[in-house]
Write a structure and sequence with these properties.
Length: 230
């Protein structure tokens, strides 16, 4: 019996290791959720073409770059937090050849994510695109993630830290001015096959796109980007 049990346990361990290596979600066992590369189910491989990037989007890097990384993200997603440094490294590696576009996809089980997404839009309203990205860097650096990792009552002081008038920011956030914009972003993401975060569309100069799901290793992105830059 012990030999059979040991064999089955070894087989299960190898299967889980293989799944994690391939970036696929493992199965929840009991009350403990095993590590995954993305929050929520994996989007369909048959994802549709995302909405074209416009001046209204939050863009980091060369606005006229040949390759676009269009990320649907959640400020309280631990895998988005893990993936954020990868995007910075890719921008350093490829310089003006790529750009990063951030779109909102706060998941319903992350309690603070919706308001943090709205807060980022209020920050952008008063501080511009640079302030938006400074806010994004700060949230991912400081949150402990998983839903309420960055307290909502700290958003006002963070706005002030980013040289945005705290009173104006708080008024904007409390008004719910950007609630619909964030929810529209979720709807648009869902329409093109997004159901988990981070989900990143890598788009070439002709508009052709591939989707990479989860906080995958940087090599996975480089392989696609290098091919699209040829």
């Amino acid at each position: 019996v012990l030999i059979v049990a040991a064999f089955l346990l070894g087989s299960l361990t190898n299967k889980v290791a293989t799944l994690e290596k391939n970036g696929l979600p493992t199965i929840a066992t009991g009350d403990t959720k095993q590590p995954t590369q993305a929050d929520n189910p994996v989007p369909s491989a048959a994802a549709k073409k995302p909405k074209a990037v416009t001046a209204a989007d939050h863009i980091r890097g060369n606005k006229n770059a040949k390759v676009t990384l269009l990320e649907y993200s959640d400020f309280e997603c631990p895998f988005c937090q893990r993936f954020h440094p990868t995007t910075q490294e890719l921008l350093k590696t490829y310089g003006d050849k790529i750009r990063l576009v951030f779109r909102h996809y706060p998941l319903p089980f992350h309690a603070n994510a919706q308001k943090e997404a709205e807060a980022s839009e209020c920050i952008a309203q008063f501080g511009g695109n640079d302030a938006f990205w400074k806010y994004t860097d700060a949230i991912f650096e400081r949150t402990t993630a998983n839903g309420t990792g960055f307290a909502l009552d700290k958003l006002g002081p963070l706005a002030a830290e980013l040289d945005v008038d705290q009173q104006q920011f708080q008024s904007c956030l409390d008004s719910g001015k950007y609630e619909k914009l964030v929810k529209d972003s979720i709807e648009e993401g869902s329409a093109v096959g997004v159901s988990g975060t981070p989900s990143t569309f890598i788009i070439d100069s002709k508009g052709n796109s591939q989707i990479v799901v989860g906080a995958q290793p940087i090599e996975a992105f480089k392989a696609i980007i290098d091919q699209e830059l040829k």
